[in-house]
Prior knowledge:
alpha/beta; 7-stranded mixed β-sheet; 3-stranded mixed β-sheet; 15 helices; about 40% helix; globular
Amino acid sequence: MTAIAQMAAQSGNADAFHVVFCVDDRYFRCMGATIASIIANNAERNFVFHVLATKVSEDNRRRFESLAQRPGTTVHLHLLDAELFSRFDQYTRSSYYSSAIFARLVIPDILKSYTDRVLYLDADILCVGSIDELARLDLADDIALVVPDAEATTRRRVEALKLKHPRYFNSGMLYINIPKWIEAGITQQTIDAILKDGENFRFPDQDALNVVLDGRARFVGVRWNYLYGLVGDLENNRPALAIPAGAATFIHFAGSVKPWGVWSGHDSVRLFQKYHALSAWSDQSLDIEPTNYKELRMHSRFQWARGNRLDSLRWYWRYLLVRRARK
């Protein structure tokens, strides 16, 4: 038994499964639904939930800490110094990315005294099944378990990054073997890759991780990070959530439209509402209308696809007004 396992056994969490999120204040609400979905579909399992953040409101802190009231659940909030990520400002200043995407790089160093392995998840993922099979996988010789990205994305990124192995993963799910990650120096190598070639990366941290872990990560089935884009459905007036039975345990809504956007009218909203209602953030309303000019423009397109021409023009007019105000 490792020293870390001994510590866990002494604290009564020897069988606990560790899950970590890296979020800013805006994403605690949706992370709450992710956590609720994991617990709801794995009621007999003990969990330790970690959050890495640079700033957290007292309200979000209180709600997160309330999760520990459930028997078998432990929570840890790890506040990071924002200066840790100041070197990456150029990648977040003029994009929709936040410094939270780089926080995942320090997960192993922050959590090495808590556990040997941890599951990292993006906060736009919902769990719809048991994680028992994933928890049983042997990581002894693996740095991390990863899931392949979409075929089109893989082709483009493998060529652009000149990867030696024709595989590319989506970093929204990483099952990390902490001692192996640290031993291999993955964090520093990834930081070096970003600082050296980041301007040529389409997805700064994800591309860098793929470069560094090229041929060194173990790929597992897509059910553990089932990528689902709502935009394609909505542009073609397909509001149904079309996932084959048993194909997904973690559904990752990785596109620019999220299931907490009630305005989309997609069936995924009902799935999100189900778990949102079980979360510590259940009293917070979802997004009834688009919240920014990009969503306004997309909603206009979606209404047009549904044949709602007048509504489409109204939403497009609102998009033009909001965009003009931003200039």
